[in-house]
Design a protein that fits this description.
This protein is mostly helical and 59 residues long. 64% of the residues lie in helices and 0% in strands.
Length: 59
């Protein structure tokens, strides 16, 4: 099976988005609200790609 490779610019973009998200959480007046927003938007992106998110939830 051939390994999947991600172009360097795509990986850099993903990591910059993650860094920005963490900075938003850190600076938020209401961190819980920001975390919930980040979870909702990330879940929507994953589901748009056909990735089931129910198994990814911590109980």
């Amino acid at each position: 099976m051939e390994a999947l490779e991600m172009p360097e610019k795509k990986l850099a973009t993903i990591l910059m988005d993650k860094y920005i998200d963490l900075q938003r959480i850190k600076a938020a007046n209401d961190r819980e609200k920001e975390i919930q927003y980040q979870l909702r938007t990330t879940k929507a992106k994953l589901e748009a790609l056909g990735i089931v998110t129910e198994e990814l939830t911590l109980d």
